[in-house]
Amino acid sequence: MPTHVPGPTGARSRLGRLARLPHRVRLEVWQLEDRVVPATAGFVEGPDGTLFPVPSEATSLPAGALGLPFLALAPQGEAPPVVRFNNPQTGIRMFPFVPFAPDFLGGVRPAAADVTGDGVPDFVVGVGPGGGSEVRVYDGASGAQAAGPLGSFQAFEAGFTGGVSVAAADVNRDGFADVIVAAGTGGGPRVRVLSGADGAVLADFFAADETLRFGLVVAAADVNRDGAADIITATGAGGVAEVTVFSGLDRSRLAGFLAFEPDFTLGVSLAAADVTGDGAADVLVGAGRGGSPRVRVFDGASGSVVKDFYAFESSFRGGANVAGIDTDGEGLAEIVTGAGPGGGSRVRVLDATTLAERISFAAYTAPFDNTGVVVAGR
To answer: Are 173 and 202 in contact, with CB atoms under 8 Å apart?
Structure first.
């Protein structure tokens, strides 16, 4: 489990490996708005022997950095857990962050919301497959790992290694965003909700037949306009892509529908935000790995399809990761898409009404550039 940072003699970071592997080493440079800052880097060996540079001084967030709008861009898998924070209006890189041990290669599942209740968004991260079910919360104001039980915890039993999907939103109207966790690859359709106020378990339930083993992805936002965030789940890869909306207050079922055609079983990415401007959160889905980069948006109030489009070229088969983020502060979320594996780490911010491209950029450079990009932000 990614619970420690290996020392300089760790198996994946020995400098002796550099001399024996035919990969070029380069200095990673980060542009912080109007200045350029070089970041020192260690190296982690990927599954195929590729050496990934990992910033060695990026194990906490810069204090106060999340008080500004941001996109958090995380590797989908098969790469070290280097999260990149970018300006959502320009695409310019702001800073890197390594929330788990550098030699963990299972991917990062990010979310952002005000868990601590101080008015500053906090950063929630869960591990992908192979990392157990660890979740960490980083305080957006201080940059440090949050105090208390939500700072770091295993969401499920110790024997589960399929990773998690995470979301964060206030489901009980107490002013603290709560942490919502669903079991990942190979897990049952189990969802747990932990209080942002004190870490207490607010809910622990199965979103579908508990014998299924496809895992879930999860999102959260206020779909029914009752002031409490609702919980949205979708079946993982291998199962029919069924989306279900549950009341955040009492977990009653509010809606259910298929993300795509009944024979689509490649899994989906999932997000929720108001992209239509009616005050109700809408549900965004993107086709999973192996599928085309098709994205659909379902109206939160009626459940009808309001958008159905390809985020990238229709022939691409890495899927599309989705997020709904108000990147310009005008009160309406934009649709943000990240290319799945093999897609050159492309990120696009689209106008939710016209689908016109606001900005596009590559989240990563080689060798991270084809690992897939998972997107979160505020």
So the answer is: no
Residue 45's nearest CA partner among 1, 95, 10 is 10
Calpha distance 257→325 (Å, rounded): 23
Q: Is-contact 105 47, C-beta < 8 A?
A: yes
Which pairing describes strands 35-39 and 28-32: parallel, antiparallel, or unpaired?
antiparallel
Low-confidence ranges of the chain (pLDDT < 50): 1-39
CATH number assigned to the domain comprising residue 327:
2.130.10.10
pLDDT value for 50: 80
Which amino acid belongs to residue 205?
Answer: F
Question: How does 255-281 read in b/e, with b if 16+ C-beta sit within 10 Å?
Answer: bebebbeeebbbbbbbbbbbbbeeebb
Cβ atoms within 10 Å of 57's Cβ, excluding its own:
11
Q: What is the residue range of 146's domain?
A: 61-377
* Tokens 């020392």, located at residue: 7
Reduced to 3 states, what is the DSSP secondary structure of residue 264? coil
* Inside any domain, residue 99: yes
Q: Do residues 233 and 212 make contact, with C-beta atoms less than 8 angstroms apart?
A: no
DSSP 170-193: -SSSSSSPEEEEEE-TT--SEEEE
Residues 345 and 341: their CA atoms lie apart, in Å, by 8
Parallel/antiparallel/unpaired status of strands 334-339 and 346-350? antiparallel
In a domain, residue 43? The reply is no
DSSP element (H, E) containing 74: strand 71-75
In a domain, 332, yes or no: yes
| Of the candidates 370, 324, 2, 46, the residue with the CA atom closest to the CA atom of residue 163 | 2
For residue 54, tell me if it sits in a domain.
no
State how many domains the chain has: 1
Q: How many other C-beta atoms are found inside a 10 Å radius of the C-beta of residue 2?
A: 21
